[in-house]
């Protein structure tokens, strides 16, 4: 008897040919094919390998925990390696330049100058050796030698040098004073700042607020992702398009080009960055205080510092505008750069890899040029939360203790534009290269202009710039290696020009 399940041509479908695989008859005909577990279904696929299409089994609980620990360790290591430079940059940004930086060296050299003047008045020339009259004569008499007494000869140490208390200050004392503050001759030098920190508080002083920075980075990334997904659901935008575009990186991410609604993606990413910055503004302000205060200034924990805010655990009102602009403008530039390059300049990351790389580098440089002045104003507004009387707690009965900082910081915060004006036109002094060259050559007296100019807004810019160079160089080389053969040859021709 013929099997009823065997295929019989249908007269209504004379040209239909069933597939050669999948029928139970063919499966039974081949001895190597396994039997189907479901006898009721008429089709099986024994010859298809699903290993390439189905991902591996979900990891175990132990594997998941180990993966999270490895990621956390890697991120913490990244924070530890970059924290000294971030600390130095923040110190340079918040430090108020003095009217004349040279005046800081005069009190420390006053005793040495007085000692030299007294020696010259008494007939001595600096730190010269003992004269021949002061040397003992070992060949005239056997009497014990007595040093000649002279009222004009001051006490001297070994080799005729002045005593230690009158000598020039030691190398590790020239950067600090009795109040614990560090002194910097060059207000733009990162290395001098790191040296002053290590001389003042030891090597560990360069890693101030490392744990607070790690907590802030983790929460910032988490909250920004959450707000992106939330806003995407509210405005009916594809969540995959929003989450795939990562903003805030050193190099713009071209994944936004695959978005179906790039304008909405840019706006949602910018809004998510602003909301995340507002929520975490108290932690950022607490981190600034932990970096700028000495180790003897309490509290030294993140929770204790948050409780010391005028509005505990909440962002102070004066930080709202500057925090908004600091978080939104760089994010807006970073996310919109790929769209502008693709739509208006006709550049494509796959067809023009070298030109795309150079254009994104210029966009990132523009991002840094806007971010650094705003960040300088933000840091000064954050430390003014504890130093300005205008931001005191609303309760008049509460007593606030004035904090001690390791560098001179602003005692008040008047707003974004007034702070920028104060840095460029009121703080410290500046010299043009022409005036400096003329003064060194003796052709003209030294001319100093009040204010630091635009350069004062970009203290510590080397940290961000060299970080951008490193990330951009790595992505450029990686793009050359992973691109197609044509793109690789084109990028290689232009790569020598960089």
From TrEMBL:
<feature type="compositionally biased region" description="Low complexity">
    <location>
        <begin position="141"/>
        <end position="154"/>
    </location>
</feature>
<keyword id="KW-0472">Membrane</keyword>
<keyword id="KW-0496">Mitochondrion</keyword>
<keyword id="KW-0999">Mitochondrion inner membrane</keyword>
<keyword id="KW-1133">Transmembrane helix</keyword>
<feature type="region of interest" description="Disordered">
    <location>
        <begin position="95"/>
        <end position="185"/>
    </location>
</feature>
<keyword id="KW-0812">Transmembrane</keyword>
<dbReference type="InterPro" id="IPR023395">
    <property type="entry name" value="MCP_dom_sf"/>
</dbReference>
<feature type="compositionally biased region" description="Basic and acidic residues">
    <location>
        <begin position="171"/>
        <end position="180"/>
    </location>
</feature>
<dbReference type="GO" id="GO:0016020">
    <property type="term" value="C:membrane"/>
</dbReference>
<protein>
    <recommendedName>
        <fullName>Mitochondrial fusion protein</fullName>
    </recommendedName>
</protein>
């Amino acid at each position: 008897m013929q099997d009823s399940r065997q295929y019989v041509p249908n007269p209504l479908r004379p040209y239909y040919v069933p597939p050669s695989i999948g029928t139970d008859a063919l499966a039974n005909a081949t001895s190597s094919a396994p039997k189907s577990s479901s006898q009721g279904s008429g089709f099986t696929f024994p010859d298809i390998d699903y290993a390439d299409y189905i991902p591996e089994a979900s990891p175990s609980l132990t594997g998941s925990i180990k993966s999270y620990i490895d990621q956390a360790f890697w991120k913490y290591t990244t924070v530890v390696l970059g924290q000294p430079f971030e600390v130095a940059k923040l110190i340079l940004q918040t430090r108020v330049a003095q009217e004349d930086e040279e005046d800081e060296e005069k009190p420390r050299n006053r005793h040495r100058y007085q000692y030299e003047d007294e020696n010259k008045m008494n007939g001595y020339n600096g730190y010269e050796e003992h004269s021949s009259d002061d040397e003992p004569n070992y060949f005239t008499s056997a009497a014990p030698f007595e040093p000649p007494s002279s009222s004009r000869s001051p006490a001297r140490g070994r080799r005729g040098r002045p005593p230690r208390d009158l000598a020039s200050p030691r190398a590790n004392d020239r950067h600090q004073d009795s109040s614990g503050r560090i002194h910097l001759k060059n207000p733009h030098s990162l290395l001098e700042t790191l040296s002053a920190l290590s001389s003042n508080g030891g090597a560990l002083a360069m890693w101030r607020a490392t744990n607070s920075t790690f907590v802030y980075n983790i929460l910032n990334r988490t909250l920004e992702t959450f707000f992106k997904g939330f806003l995407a659901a509210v405005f009916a935008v594809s969540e995959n398009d929003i989450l795939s575009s990562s903003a805030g990186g050193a190099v713009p991410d071209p994944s936004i080009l695959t978005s179906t609604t790039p304008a909405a993606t840019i706006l949602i990413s910018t809004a998510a960055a602003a909301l995340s910055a507002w929520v975490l503004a108290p932690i950022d302000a607490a981190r600034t205080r932990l970096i700028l205060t000495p180790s003897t200034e309490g509290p030294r924990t993140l929770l204790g510092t948050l409780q010391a805010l005028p509005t505990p655990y909440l962002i102070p009102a004066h930080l709202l505008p500057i925090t908004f602009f600091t978080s939104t403008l760089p994010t807006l530039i970073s996310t919109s750069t790929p769209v502008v390059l693709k739509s208006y300049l006709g550049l494509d990351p796959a067809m023009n890899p070298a030109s795309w790389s150079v254009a994104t580098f210029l966009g990132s440089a523009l991002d840094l040029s806007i971010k650094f002045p705003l960040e300088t104003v933000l840091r000064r507004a954050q430390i003014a939360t504890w130093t300005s009387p205008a931001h005191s707690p609303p309760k008049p009965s509460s007593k606030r203790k004035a904090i001690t900082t390791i560098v001179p910081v602003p005692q008040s915060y008047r707003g974004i534009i007034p702070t920028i004006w104060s840095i460029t036109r009121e703080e410290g002094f500046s010299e043009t290269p022409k005036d400096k060259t003329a003064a060194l050559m003796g052709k003209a007296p030294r001319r100093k202009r009040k204010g630091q100019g635009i350069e004062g807004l970009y203290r510590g810019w080397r940290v961000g710039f060299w970080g951008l160079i490193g990330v951009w160089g790595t992505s450029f080389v990686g793009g050359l290696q992973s691109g197609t053969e044509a793109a690789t040859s084109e990028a290689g021709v232009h790569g020598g020009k960089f």
